[in-house]
């Protein structure tokens, strides 16, 4: 099915997409399916899950797509300090803001665990984040789908990357090309710009990749201190 959304934002902007969900729901597998390649490591056991926030960019169906694969933000065994550091790292990876959130669920019905996940997303981001969200799951959960504007591009093993990308294009179109932002994302963008300028002035022989890596490390330290 061809996309009908054709604003200049959709044609030219990179799509920054954050994958949210608890541990073992298949976020890394979903990211690899979108890219059509094994870019993110898949856990071989319940104890070897994604432990750090990681971002990768690829060209997908003519779109420049950046996927931010997050660790289990919403796992109850993590301390507040661990959650804070992971959240700041995620924010840095998607600054100045994501164009879409994919809420990845692996459930048969809407349980207390899923309700807690929704509350955590509201807490860490805001209710506004759901305007930029789509749900990826196997069964049910009509209440959450309705909260995310009815966007439901994935069902069991019938996943179609083209359909998902069209859904993300729809989110971008409905938000007039704007990415999601909040105070932390705005602060992250300011810190990134300041840190990058400082590094460029002091280290003129560094490659762009090295500058980006040092910028993220410096901005991460500053933001963790601010928070």
TrEMBL record:
The keyword Nucleotide-binding applies. It holds the Pfam family AIG1. Residues 185-212 form a coiled coil. InterPro entries: G_AIG1, GIMA/IAN/Toc, P-loop_NTPase. It comes from the Eukaryota. The keyword Coiled coil applies. Residues 12-210 form the AIG1-type G domain. One of its GO terms (molecular function) is GTP binding. SUPFAM superfamilies: P-loop containing nucleoside triphosphate hydrolases. Keywords: Coiled coil, GTP-binding, Nucleotide-binding. Belongs to the TRAFAC class TrmE-Era-EngA-EngB-Septin-like GTPase superfamily. AIG1/Toc34/Toc159-like paraseptin GTPase family. IAN subfamily. This is AIG1-type G domain-containing protein.
């Amino acid at each position: 099915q061809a996309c009908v959304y054709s604003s200049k934002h959709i044609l030219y902007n990179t799509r920054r997409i954050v994958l949210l969900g608890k541990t073992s729901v298949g976020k890394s597998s979903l990211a690899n399916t979108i890219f059509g390649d094994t870019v993110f490591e898949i856990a071989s056991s319940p104890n070897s899950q994604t432990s750090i926030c990681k971002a990768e960019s690829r060209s997908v169906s003519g779109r420049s797509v950046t996927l931010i694969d997050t660790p289990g933000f919403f796992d109850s065994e993590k301390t507040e300090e661990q959650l804070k550091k992971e959240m700041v790292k995620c924010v840095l990876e998607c600054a100045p803001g994501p164009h879409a959130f994919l809420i990845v669920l692996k459930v048969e019905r809407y349980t207390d665990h899923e309700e807690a996940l929704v509350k955590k997303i509201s807490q860490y981001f805001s209710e506004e984040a759901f305007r930029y969200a789509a749900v990826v799951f196997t069964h049910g959960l009509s209440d959450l789908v309705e909260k995310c504007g009815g966007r439901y591009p994935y069902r069991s093993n019938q996943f179609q990357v083209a359909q998902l990308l069209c859904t993300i294009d729809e989110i971008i179109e409905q938000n007039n090309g704007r990415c999601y932002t909040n105070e932390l994302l705005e602060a992250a963008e300011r810190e990134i710009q300041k840190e990058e300028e400082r590094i460029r002035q002091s280290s003129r022989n560094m490659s762009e990749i090295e500058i980006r890596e040092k910028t993220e490390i410096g901005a991460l330290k500053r933001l963790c201190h601010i928070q």
